Amino acid sequence: MKRVILILSLCVLVFSQTAYSQTRSKVEERFELTSLMFALIGAPEYSQCRIPSYKEDIVNTFARYENSEPIEYVRELREKYHISYDAVSTAAELLELKDGKFRLRPQYKLKDIEKYDDRWTAEQFDKFIRMANRFYKESDFQEWFDSHRDLYAIAEQRMDSLVNSVDTAWFEEFYGKPYDEDIKFYVSMINGPSNYMISEGVLMGIASDAEGLPDTTGTAGYILMHELCHHYSNDIIRGYYSLMIPYAEKILPHVYDKQRAAGYGFVESMIGEWFNELCTMMYYKERDDANVPVYLKIADDKGYIWMGRSMAFMEHFYENRDKYPHIDDFMPQIVAFFNYTADNIETVVKEYEMRSPYITEVYPAMGSDITGYDKIIITFSQPMFGGYSFSGTTGSDDENVKLLPACRAYYIDDYRLAIELEPDKLEPGCTYGLQMNPIFFLADNCHSLVDSCRNLTFTTAPERE
Asked: Is residue 21's pLDDT more than 60?
């Protein structure tokens, strides 16, 4: 019997090692070094490290190099030539570390650099490699990197767990192409919430847990799936750019600020990212994921304010899979849908503006006398998520307005919030105010309360003589 148990244990061990070897995430010097160089110039997308101890070590070790020649060159690349975001991760992917120096990997040629990313020129890239090597040597980056190996191991292990949670069979079901087992996964401790698809795989930023250790928390799974989908979606959507660009130009002005904040801002990127986001949403919708409203809000915040319509339109794809076995077969319909949306973008904008909850009524009514009342009931336009928060201020610049004496708040139902008062603390002949924190008053669709509803104001009757 013991022999059988031993054999079974060995089988499990071998299986586990085989499964683990299929997804070996890595923290690599080429990605950390290039991200660090852009972090030192304050590039927002590279300045959001979420690991407190790691961020502190960066500041303590490398802040002295902020005005060095290598970092000044990086500043020039960003400010003058707009090298940022995925142009940096692309550059890192083209490099290898050999004998203590970075160089182009053998399969790439410097003269062809613009084929890999047209934001770079051969001259710029050549100098960037030289500056990276100089910074690498002068800052003793290798020694610093090696000193964090234990922290990297935690990040790699936790990223592997996330990668292994992906249902890889879905890619063939949805795209008609099997999951690419050769996709590689890299982790950047510096990048924080910034993540990038690279030609050979995915470069993921990482958050931290309560102990300050690297962790794949929050929406990390969704982000990972988003980057994986790019490896399938990009080739499909590029074939339709010529049909969609004239219409995308109608949409972009309405969502430009959101797009720029997300690191985009061109019609091609808007089209491609919207389609990829839609595909990612389908993965989670098929699984009845409870976080779909959160992911939809993320899409809205990036400027894809027609994503709700897009998801609804995809029902036709699922209802007719005999006609549309895979998403590529449905593309003529998707293109026509997108173009129709563009022709009606003003209506879409109005729909989007109505997604945020607002207050439909307050009882006792706003501005009225609340003498003798023990609670205030607020009714919202949409079912609410259940959260609330108050600023602890009156919301008024008038020093005569007093803070409303409230002891607690609770939801009566999905639409109504009760605020219990302390009637004995109400003074006669006064005006009272209470400011709500809109961001914490979320509807079920994850949109927050409109800002114009943030302030509540009431009065009390003058004291009778």
From this structure: no
